[in-house]
Amino acid sequence: MLGYVRKNISEVEYHTWFAPVRPLGVQQGSLVLGVRNSFAQEWFRKHYLELLEDALRSMGAQSPQVSFQVLPAVQDAMILPQDPPPRSPSSSNGRSSPERGERGSIPQGVTDSRKALNPKYIFENFVVGPNNNLAHAAALAVAESPGKAYNPLFIYGDVGLGKTHLMHAVGHYMAERYPDKRIEYVSTESFTNDLINAIRDDKMTQFRNRYRSVDLLLVDDIQFLAGKERTQEEFFHTFNALYENHKQIILSSDRPPKDIQTLEGRLRSRFEWGLITDIQSPEFETRVAILKMNAEHHRMNIPQEVLELIARQVTSNIRELEGALMRVVAFASLNNVPFSRAVAAKALSNVFAPQEVKVEMADVLRAVAGHYNIPPDAIRGSGRVREVVVPRQMAMYLIRELTGHSLPEIGGFFGRDHSTVMHAVQKVTEQLGRDSELTEAAAFLKRRLQGLEGDDS
Ligand code: ADP
Ligand code: MG
Asked: Region Domain IV, binds dsDNA: what ranges (predicted)?
């Protein structure tokens, strides 16, 4: 069937879309295809349904039907058209698990080995920026001295910012160096389900053995413990057993422990024993770096200005950032056009609203001058004293973050060359998260320039 498809579309298109697809079987007379994420699912429905039905007809099907299902194991994976097909869940731990596709269920219990770790979530694939450098450093420290550096390590942040990626990275790091160590990655939901099953099947001893005999326990999305008393109780004992034996625990959550409602006090205080670190939304430069890495994985040569355009459209969630890149790649390949800003803008136009507030360089200059209480001309002038250098760097940084101007254009506005601008942007970026005054000024000015904060001066 894929042969038929291949003959009818371009090679790039085939590799982008069809190479990673997995036939999952026939369900109520309909062919079920496994796709990598919900974006691909939508894309297939829109663009390839007829082609696939034709393909089935060419094989003699009378009234062909095709449906799509997102493959859970690779839902988060980066977009790699040349990826090998994901491994099947039933082979991952030797136990028989329900067939994937049956009632659309995600197989439970595929958690008790390092095989549950996503192979792409390694330190080498993690782009470090001011938004995540503390969490990254802490994860690395824990990976290097498990049970000794920080225990537990608690990583929190909004969805799609890399918490799961960092946890898996620690798992891979340890697995590689200490092949005999036991590593357990589990979502809080799976932990809860395992507990419920263990109670039902009278297998609490096995449950406890499993979770209390590991060297590294990674528990994802621990905020879901909220309100689950029995699970909290069991997790409390698991925690203590591991902690007393100096086994490393890493927890992730969408919020800090103090904000998890209905979490028992004794658990909350334990979560605070080690190190609590957060991940924020990535800065523009970090977003571009992440896109660049993704593009390189694709072996796609996408011009910098196109990556920058995408990075400007999607600002808060890295999964969406990757989705946007995928959309641009798909759009260009389907229309057989080279990557350009115009093509990228078109590809993203019906997904992301154009930037609401258009910020001009002069607006930024004015706002920065007002904030630091110095004349705009002094910022653009040649003075080198700290009082003007800091605001100048801030202005360059904000223009880079908030407007579509290139480094040479910004340089031109300040009567300087692009390398000066690049240096200024780097300088400010490095100081973010370290210099609190500068961090606050940057955040405040950004909000004001984007119209999120009133002008009260
Ligand atoms: P979370 O668990 O915080 O919701 P994930 O760890 O699932 O987020 O990350 C979402 C996606 O973004 C994943 O594909 C992940 O690889 C990618 N990602 C997140 N942070 C980074 C980063 N710093 N560098 C590269 N990719 C990242
Ligand atoms: Mg996650």
From this structure: 333-457
Rounded to 5 degrees, what are φ and ψ at 69?
-140, 135
Letter for the amino acid at 262?
T
Q: Give kind and range of the element (H or E) at residue 209.
A: helix 204-212
- Tell me the average pLDDT across 293-299: 89
How many Å lie between the centroid of ligand 1 and the Cα of residue 393? 29
Question: For ligand 1, atom 20, which residue shows the shortest CA distance?
Answer: 162
The CB density around residue 335, as the number of other CB atoms within 10 Å, is 10
303's CB contacts (< 8 A; 6+ apart) are 339, 340
Q: What are phi and psi of 260, to 5 degrees?
A: -85, 110
Enumerate the known binding-site residues for ATP: 160, 162-164
Query: Span 238-254, mean pLDDT?
Result: 97
Distances (CA, A) of 231 to 4, 6, 67, 216, 220: 51, 50, 37, 19, 14
> Measured between alpha carbons, how far is 395 from 401 in angstroms, rounded to an integer?
10
- CA 393 – CA 190 distance, rounded (Å): 48
Question: Residue written as tokens 């960092």?
Answer: 166
Cα 221 to ligand 2 centroid, rounded to whole Å: 7
SS3 category, 399: helix
Quick one: pLDDT band at residue 324, thresholds 50, 70, 90? Answer: very high
pTM (2 d.p.): 0.64
Tell me the C-alpha distance between 246 and 231, whole Å.
Answer: 22
**The complex's ipTM?**
0.99
Ligand 1 and 318: CB distance under 6 A: yes
Q: How far apart are CA 229 and CA 264, in angstroms?
A: 8
pLDDT tens column, 174-218: 999 999 999 999 999 999 999 999 999 999 999 999 999 999 999
Longest dimension (CA), the chain: 80
Higher pLDDT, 112 or 404: 404
Distant-in-sequence, close-in-space partners of 13: CB < 8 Å, separation ≥ 6? 333, 334
Q: What is the DSSP letter of 168?
A: H
Please give the number of the atom of ligand 1 that sits closest to the Cα of 78.
Answer: 14
What spacing in Å lies between the alpha carbon of 162 and ligand 1's midpoint?
3
**CA–CA distance, 319 with 237 (Å, rounded to integer):** 34
